[in-house]
Design brief:
heterodimer; A: about 280 residues; alpha/beta; Rossmann fold; 6-stranded mixed β-sheet; 4-stranded antiparallel β-sheet; about 25% strand; globular; B: about 350 residues; mainly alpha; two-stranded antiparallel ribbon; 14 helices; about 0% strand
Chain lengths: ~280, ~350
Amino acid sequence: MIEIDSLYCGYGKREVLKDLNLHLEPGEFVGILGPNGSGKSTLLFAIAGVLPYRSGSIRIRGDEVCGTTTRLRARQMASVPQKSEVSFPFKCLSVVLMGRYPFLSRFGGYSQQDMDKALDAMEQTETIHLAQRMMTEVSGGEAQSVIIARALAQETEILLLDEPTSSLDVAKKIQIFDLLGRKNAAGVTILCALHDLNLAALYCRRLVFLKHGKIVLDGFTEETFNDENLSRIYETDIRVSLHPVTGSPQAHFVPGLDRVPESSDHRPVWREEILSFEPSDC
Amino acid sequence: MRDEIFQLEARASGRFCFLLALLLAGSVLSIFAASLFGRLDIPPWGVCKSILSGVGLMDAPDLDPTWKVVVFNIRLSRICLSLLVGMALAVAGTVFQGILRNPLADPFTIGVSTGAAFGASLALFFGLGAKQLMGFEFIPLASLGGAMAALFAVISLGRINGQLRRETMVLAGIVVATFLSALISLIKSLDEESVASIVFWVMGSFQGRGWNHVGFALPYMAAGLVIIWVYSRELDILSMGDTQAKQMGVHTEKVRLRLMIGASLLTAAAVSVSGVIGFIGLVMPHLIRMTVGAEHGRLLVLSGLLGGVALLWSDVLARILLPGGEELPVGVVTALMGGPFFCFLLKRRGVGTRL
């Protein structure tokens, strides 16, 4: 599906990816992990055709990425950025509809079908109640969910995600990744850069670890996700145990000795009335 | 849920249609109403008859020929020109704000207006003010050339590694505008005689403009409008930023260049016949964005119409405000009204969250 061979890529004079090789089969759910500045986002940009590469090749279904048109690429793969800035008050629905742009004819507008697909995507990401709200007036997490809906509305067979859920709360994270899991089961190839190791271990079947612009480790989650590998790659003490429900490996981070918390007498007090409070629908 | 959304969508398009109808009716009414103002006192029925016979819709042999000349050739042409220029400036402002993703951008930010002013100043300095070239006055041609030269200077300055970046483009625009303003000042100090005409021109005015100016500006404006209309949907997507726009299938460099050329054609045509008129291109997009949202299809149409009507009445004010029959430059009127109004907008809605 995606074949990357001896890829060199960077910004200006700075080379970020050096001699990178990566092959993805159709239907894979791959997590890209690695410390800050290891080249995760750069790799996703290069695959999406946003960042031109110096040498090497990236082929999607056999077609070289830099040889196809922007429009064709947008029909093949959709991207979700880490963060997006919206400068103007667009309706959330309009933003999701933009995902249908690569399928429009030059002078045609968005059809009813496009509208339905946009609304489907919003339903799936549970953002449909935001449809008429302004993108500038929803919360950061809600805006990110809308952007994810936009990528789904693109209906591509490849999804490239760059820490799509780092601004979302725990429940939203799980909800979005469950959704991605369902998309993956339906045949969508997913490549997702993540900082959250545990989220990656829960959902990705294969993990690719980047460091200094190179792949240091690439393999199935069960085989790569262990104390030794993680501690070496992230240069900090990490222990792995099994998830009590799913049995997937989960990482635990060991604080330095000087940071061991002191015990205190403070006892938590529950405020039941806040927990049971249901905000009125807006 | 979906029905509710469709209902709200329908209500939004209803609202758009209502505003569109309102502004169209407002424009037509304004054209008639504004024709009533002037030094010569002509009764409303005379104005109506003059306009209708001038357009060729009515035969009015009993009409005073001076009335017809005054209303049709002097007032109406000037009104139509101010309507067109206002529309062009507002649409160009909307486009520049969209592609630079900067709510404070307008035709001035990018240096195009100043380029046009420089071209005209240069022509006035060399005493070409009264010269004609192929039946056209020389000054509009000179300012059109100046505007286009400024645009290409900004584009080539703003291009880094073959990529046009909005940050560098804003900076390049400011540099070019500042440099050209300095050159205009230099020309003014070199040539005492043309100072008055340059100053008047730089402040913007419709004094003495007629149908030939409308004819001069119209083709450029039409070309600019067509380009912008074709790419209005891309303008929406460009607002999400370059990277995301590319990921959604927009050929950003190509589209932005074409949009800039379109908007610059509008600006250049406007400035070439009217001089530099501020605030229309800045304020109108904001007003409309606050009422119908940022989707450019609707935004462009409505802010264009509103800009036309606003400049039309600003020009009427410029004609009648001074008691002695003297005229104010219309740029002074728009700046005097637009400045405080924009401050009000800024305070009220926090227009520029990011610069």
